[in-house]
Amino acid sequence: MAIYKAPVRDMQFVLHELLEAETEFKALGFDEASSDLIDTILEEGAKFCESVIFPTNRVGDEQGCKFDNGHVTTPAGFQEAYKALCEAGWMSLACDTEFGGQGLPNTLSVFFEEMLQSANMAFSLYPGLTRGAYVAMKAYASDELKRRFLPKMVEGTWSGAMALTESHCGTDLGMLRTRAEPQEDGGFHLNGTKIFITGGEHDLAENIIHLVLARLPDAPEGTKGISMFLVPKFLVNEDGSLGERNGMSCGSIEHKMGIRGASTCVMNYENAKGWLVGEPNRGLHAMFSMMNHERIMVGQQGLSQAEVAYQSAVDYARERVQGRAPTGPKFPDQPADPIIVHPDVRRMLLNSRAQSEGARALLGWVSLLTDREERHTDPTEREAAEDLVALLTPVVKAFITDMGTEACNNCLQVFGGHGYITEWGMEQLVRDVRISQIYEGANGIHAMDLVSRKLPMHQGRPVRRYLEFLNAFVKEHAEDQELEEFMAPLGEGVKRLTKATEWLAKAGAKNPDEPGAAAYDYLRLMALIAIGHMWAKSASIAVNKVDGDNTGFYRTKLSTARYFMKRVMPQTLGLLASLTSGSDTLMAPDAEAF
Amino acid sequence: MAIYKAPVRDMQFVLHELLEAETEFKALGFDEASSDLIDTILEEGAKFCESVIFPTNRVGDEQGCKFDNGHVTTPAGFQEAYKALCEAGWMSLACDTEFGGQGLPNTLSVFFEEMLQSANMAFSLYPGLTRGAYVAMKAYASDELKRRFLPKMVEGTWSGAMALTESHCGTDLGMLRTRAEPQEDGGFHLNGTKIFITGGEHDLAENIIHLVLARLPDAPEGTKGISMFLVPKFLVNEDGSLGERNGMSCGSIEHKMGIRGASTCVMNYENAKGWLVGEPNRGLHAMFSMMNHERIMVGQQGLSQAEVAYQSAVDYARERVQGRAPTGPKFPDQPADPIIVHPDVRRMLLNSRAQSEGARALLGWVSLLTDREERHTDPTEREAAEDLVALLTPVVKAFITDMGTEACNNCLQVFGGHGYITEWGMEQLVRDVRISQIYEGANGIHAMDLVSRKLPMHQGRPVRRYLEFLNAFVKEHAEDQELEEFMAPLGEGVKRLTKATEWLAKAGAKNPDEPGAAAYDYLRLMALIAIGHMWAKSASIAVNKVDGDNTGFYRTKLSTARYFMKRVMPQTLGLLASLTSGSDTLMAPDAEAF
């Protein structure tokens, strides 16, 4: 069976030692987010996710959501778990106190979210989407809408959903057809059908607040004619009580590869009453403000499943005896050695661990940058944070979800045949994590976003800033002999990333196909450097603490950092060669030749 | 929905042009395997697999096998499909005429098997295991057993199963506990429980012939005390009619990630009557003779699913309109362009295609080597073939199944959100193909087999022979300007493989952990060279035929070869660097540190 214990110690390392979170939080005006509070949240969050949420994970997959005549029933235990989540206040960590939230930093909430996603990724989508809807509404909704809807959403009594996709358009939202007709009362009537609406209908919350993208009658064609509307399942009376059922219904739910405990709905809006959120025809802009948050969260889903897979595989590899160590029996009195003695089993485990811990550090750092972007008092710092968040969000989303699938598959492999059998729980992880590469923008779209929008942004300022930052980091530690084994490979990697960036700027100027052809390799190259940076930074902390540490924590940090530098970083060689080979190999064949 | 049209033209290319099969077959004494017969088998096999077998694939996954009180019911349509398969004689292509087979080359049968596996991988396991049992029995069973059992197995009236794994041992068969007690009539009584027995029980055949590994009472411990027994579900009377039910029963079937139409059985043997096959205590040796065949077949499963995934994704990418080409609208009169205009979609498709077609060529070549190994009149040629088969079997098994999973995932990704939805059929491919990386020896075990057994074999003769062969091939074409773009990268790759091989020989002599630590990277490196060799050879044929070819076939061969050389081959850079970084990064951490 899959096992999960929240990696509290590693989270503490990232928050306290790597990010120096308490100091950062104080500077950003989060006065309450003390070191003690951070630890309390991590420890209590861990207990809650391990004991209340994780037990719902297998049954959620087995039962899935059930659809009957417009109603969706979530799997056994989901209602109780959701109630407990709301009552303990876990929904509201990073929400504003103005709406009943706890006003804590996003960065702290993100670590709780990792645990929640590890414990049950399908379940975590219901609060996750509510949080996303909260973010968008907080930024764009009128005060009246905020007042009426946000407190209930912060409590979790009402949940949120994002309604973008239609059957003929997902990536290319410019083609969407759902229509919004203005009514005399200042509201709108929405008509259309949306698909793939996660949490569009379910039995966990009293009301479900949809943020729906639709076109006004006079809207221009394409993406510049899309507006965002708040469309609640039940209308809300002046006093905040629930009124009549709105003109919207769930037509069916999808049968999916995984996340079967999450309802994926076809939603029909028939004269559904809605309210404009933000400006007319600026809906996509508003939606993206929420989607950046969602993208980091989806990136984290890759990590969350990789963590469970890793822990489960380590447990199995320590227990399962089979064969002998290459250097001779380690347990001569047993019929065989545990398979963790085998170098190739360790390769699968360490690859998962090195990528996961690196990803956790990176997610923590990018989350901190989002807090800085929003709250730093110095506009120069805000701009710097904004640049890096813009640049790294697609990297985090795409690479960490790719890594998650790779890690879950590697860890399943450690189980041999048992990994393929449902009751062991490993194949569920592979199925569940797979969606994270697809939704919130398929990973290829993020690669395109990186090379086509983020690289040229502000005449290349974000990527220049990042490369300078990395070079400064390497230079800062250049004299330290103890760190050379980490800084040298990182420095080489940064050179390769710089070369790739320069090549792309030149090649892209001549041929519009080049950015797209290089995009995926480029994103992966940048991701390996970003994770490598986190490992080098982690190592720079660990070398000073390894003496006298009797837990082995820092020794393991150093050995895992070494693994990353020697056995993962070399991939950057091939990526640079592949991406600079140009677009001809991709573009030469006619569509008919495929 | 997934679609499948058997790639007859590409199979013809491999057989007729790349392998010059007719000439080869004649030299090996397969006088009937003319060029015409080859084409007939490919064309009729294609029709059969597309129209009779492929329609059972989705329903097989949806229904799965059902277990009730020892009985296993296969999904709707499987019985009819199996009957049609037997009646048309597809089971017996490469079986000896002596037992009612058609006596055709293994190499030809293998191409039919690819189609059968593409059409329904789960279904293909029933005839596949029968064929495997046939191979082992033909080599090791007594004439009496052969006479009594093989003709019915060649017909398909009776099927075969391999019973190796027990709950506490899979890879490490030395620990197996099933016992065989000699009886007065010269037979044996078997007692024990086996797990993961594919096709151990089902409703397709009148009898099921198990080859069971078990220990004789006086057997030495470990792998040298294992014998192989033929244990039929129903005893067989002297006249060949079925007698009483044997003392064996299916205790349950597994719920699995995929291949749900294949029964995966727990088998209980209780005083089951069995007959020794081969010599006492030499059962593992006999089983491996069958497993080499099975391993090539399992490698091919990776290709088979990649092919269906590729065809389906190309179809979708041509139909689905979304966004615009980077160079400007290709279909300005439509609301958007088909997604096949996007470089990154092409990357996912071409990566699958380049690896699949390369794998098909490699599988064809290795299969031809198995025919040569068995039948060539010149013992030097037999030895050469044997060396290459031994070396390349683990490469084929592990790499092509890894590639299959990668390709199916990439092709699912092309579908975006629809890829994750069951009804589209793509996620089934990902689930089905995943087992091929695990069974018949997990891929890591094959990597170990390659570096620890195959490299040192005959003082390194097989790998030396292969490297010499590759170098000679590159040299042969060195003067050809037109081929430089293919031969130069291949030549570089061969140099890297040579370096890796030399490094491994030295490092492994000093530290027994090195081979295992390098194994996976080394196998992948050799595989990329092996596939690269096939692409360079394919290109050397295509350059001479591209002029005047109005089908585009040879032009596409060349462009796909270019893709492989420029965008896949560079991975060898990172693999060499990673594997020569040594085992320390893997072996340093204690088991507790994970």
Quote the CATH topology of the domain at 54-88 and 120-281 in chain A.
Butyryl-CoA Dehydrogenase, subunit A, domain 2
Beta-strand content estimate of chain A: 5-15%
Pair of chains with the largest interface and how many residues each contributes: A-B, 101 and 102 residues
Helix content of chain A: 55-70%
Structural class of chain A: alpha+beta
Oligomer: homodimer
Given the structure, what is the number of helices of chain A? 19
- Listing every helix as H and every strand as E from the N terminus to the C terminus, the arrangement of chain A reads HHHHEEHHHHEEEEEEEEEHHHHHHHHHHH
Sketch the major β-sheet of chain A. Answer: 7 strands, mixed
Please tell me the overall pLDDT of chain A: 97
Q: Overall 3D geometry of chain A?
A: globular
| CATH architecture call of the domain at 54-88 and 120-281 in chain A | Beta Barrel
CATH level 1 class label of the domain at 54-88 and 120-281 in chain A: Mainly Beta
Distance between the termini of chain A: 43 Å
The number of distinct β-strands of chain A equals: 11
Helices and strands, with pairings:
The structure is a homodimer of 594-residue chains.
Chain A lengths: L7 H11 L2 H7 L7 H19 L3 H7 L2 E3 L2 E3 L4 H10 L18 H14 L1 H20 L2 H13 L2 E6 L15 E4 L5 E11 L8 E8 L12 E6 L1 E3 L5 E4 L2 E6 L10 E14 L5 H37 L23 H33 L3 H36 L11 H9 L8 H12 L2 H20 L7 H27 L2 H30 L10 H16 L2 H9 L4 H4 L7
Parallel strand pairs in A: 3-6
Antiparallel strand pairs in A: 1-2, 4-5, 5-11, 6-7, 7-11, 8-9, 10-11
Helix pairs in contact in A: 1-3, 1-10, 3-6, 6-7, 6-9, 6-10, 7-8, 7-9, 9-10, 9-11, 9-12, 10-11, 10-16, 10-17, 11-12, 11-13, 11-14, 11-16, 13-16, 14-15, 15-16, 15-17, 15-18, 16-17, 16-18
